[in-house]
Known about the structure:
Layout: H1 3-15, H2 19-32, H3 41-45, H4 62-73, H5 77-87, H6 90-99, H7 113-125, H8 131-144, H9 148-159, H10 168-179, H11 183-193, H12 196-212, E1 226-229, H13 233-239, E2 244-249, E3 253-260, E4 263-268, H14 279-288, E5 293-302, H15 313-319, H16 325-331, E6 334-344, E7 347-348, H17 354-364, E8 371-373, E9 376-379, H18 382-394, E10 399-403, E11 414-421, E12 428-437, E13 446-455, E14 460-467, H19 473-483, E15 487-491, E16 494-497, E17 502-506, E18 509-512, E19 520-523, E20 526-530, H20 542-558
Parallel strand pairs: 1-11, 6-8
Antiparallel strand pairs: 2-9, 2-10, 3-4, 3-5, 5-6, 6-7, 10-11, 12-13, 12-16, 12-17, 13-14, 15-16, 17-20, 18-19
Amino acid sequence: MRYAELAGLYTELEKTTLKTLKTRLVSDFLKRTPDELLNVVPYLVLGKVFPDWDERELGVGEKLLMKAVSTATGISEREIENSVKDTGDLGESVALALKRKKQRSFFSQPLTIKRVYETFVKVAEVSGSGSQEKKLKYLANIFMDAEPTEGKYLARTVLGTMRTGVAEGLMRDAIASAFGVRAELVERAYMLTSDFGYVARTAKERGDEGLEMVEIQVGKPIRPMLAQVAASVKEALGEMGGKAAFEIKYDGARVQVHKDSDRVTIYSRRLENVTRSIPDTVEAVKEAIKADSTIVEGELVAVGEDGRPRPFQYVLRRFRRKYNIDEMIKKIPLELNLFDVLYAEGKGTIDLQFAERRKILESTVHENGSVKLAKQLVTDEPNEAEKFYHEALELGHEGLMAKRLDAVYEPGNRGKKWLKIKPTMEDLDLVIIGAEWGEGRRAHVLGSFLIAAYDPEQGRFLPVGKVGSGFTDEDLLEFTKTLKPLIVHEEGKYVEIEPKIVIEVTYQEIQRSPKYQSGFALRFPRYVAMREDKSPEEADTLERIAQLYDFQEKFKAKR
Ligand code: ATP
């Protein structure tokens, strides 16, 4: 099949914004695609060469591309670069360059999709010294034989800037219509394998029945199951029928780990292959999981020297790494907390109930220093769950996940079978107006603080809660030192403090409260940081809290 036909499709797709028309164009094209190309054409139509989870990438930037076009056309790179200033698009400029081509080869052969794809594979797979030159040569070769329109789309494919408005949903519908199969079966097969090439082939060769039989495959990532929000532990328990598995919601990056004998592949939440950037985790997984073939899921967390989790951005810094990986392993050690298993003993486990999957997970994983099981509490006791929630926050985690014990794993679905509970409201900057001395050994340290919002109309500070968690021991000593000179009145273990110090506080919810003069109380407030940069008059106001309260109630009503 000629590449010109594909270029024709891109052109047609660009001419319309109508989804139905685009779907028909793609569907017709898929119908005409010969079997041996059906693996790759869906990706090329999406403007990609490989699926995201494929480790291979072209690794060609604008510079190298221009060089290749320059080699193919005899037009200087500078000229091509200048033309981009007019066209605003390198693809268009490549087309113009090909139109003006100075050298015509006698041996010019029309481009086929097969040749283009094979060239891309060579470009992606070449490595070692001289690889840039080789890439240049391979690319120049196809540009040499490309017609202007073909060149335009080749360039866009290489750079990943296709913009024809074909996304995954459209591809699903196009495959369904091309081969007369049910769209939901195409969707299911895609959720399980993330592989449109494979799905299109199955649809064509084996129809609905074949799609229904598509199974999870080790080495092809599954779309992750997602969660909805619950306002509280109690609400989550209610939603789950009175009993649930609560797990720590780790604040890191979700990963899917595929193990096939000695080969471990790790995919990110977006199903990109991140294996190479985290060899330490790969090794730890090999040690922890002896099963021959399995797929497990978990949250990868960066841990600090004190053993507490660090913000998730740290993990992302590890993912993006291509060089100095050893150094990063030392700088940002990772811990994998596994929470699900999707494949074990030669078959998918997603249709099993969660309680059963957890058992399989527990028997699959031998915990070590870097690979652990997500901490879990199965309970029907709201108080126990509440306590667990506090512990999780106290340890620096994001909150809890609540999971239905009898739920199957639903790839790609954000349903109510998983609920996340975390302090969702934006943090508030509040003023300390009172405190309490600790007890026993801590009698000389202030341990709990009355916090207030500012009321600019009356120029006063009205309490909205007491914060007693989120502090380290050092924080408390520091606070005591700072606040002591500000004590205006003392009664038993209670002290009144001059409103001077602003702290940032997080919390789970704002409640109406008859107890406080402000009329509001923060539920589960926790200390986040000192706000030395703020004066008490710059603290959050009562009005702001009322606003947030309204917002929260509306949000709840919508859910
Ligand atoms: P968020 O920003 O809250 O993580 P999200 O859209 O990334 O939201 P959600 O489905 O809303 O994802 O929340 C679930 C996410 O929480 C998972 O994708 C995973 O990364 C993370 N997570 C942490 N701990 C767990 C756990 N024990 N079980 C499931 N997911 C967990």
